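In this section we walk through a basic example: taking a raw amino acid sequence and producing a predicted 3D structure, encoded as discrete structure tokens. The instruction is simple. Fold the sequence below.
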Amino acid sequence: MATNPTVDRTETIARLNDRARLGLDPTARITFTRTCLAAFCDPDTIEVVVIQAQLLAAFRNCMFAEDSPERDLGTIEFRGRKVWLKVDYYDSELCYGSDDPADASVTTRVLTILLPEDY
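The resulting token sequence is shown next.
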């Protein structure tokens, strides 16, 4: 049975994105927009750490759009607000886009948690 390289590549990227989203990729970076954090607390207080942890936990079970087969854009409802998680692919120095997001050895995943209006 012949395999489809495009499907295999897409599934590889999706699995790597899932690893990063679940906190299993030690090279991944996670960032929150200030607007997103400010929607739930004063970002200049210690409460921001709790909100970040709660958002990360919520994204473990997020929904992905059908047009996101790489699972690089997830959504959740958090405290009555829609929140997005976006995965971007950079080189290991975080200077340029990754040449091959399916290759974890040359790609650093950056997960951004944001409100839709931040996009």
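Looking at the output, two observations stand out. Residues 32 and 113 are 5 Å apart (CA to CA). The longest strand covers residues 81-90. In the next section we compare this with other chains.
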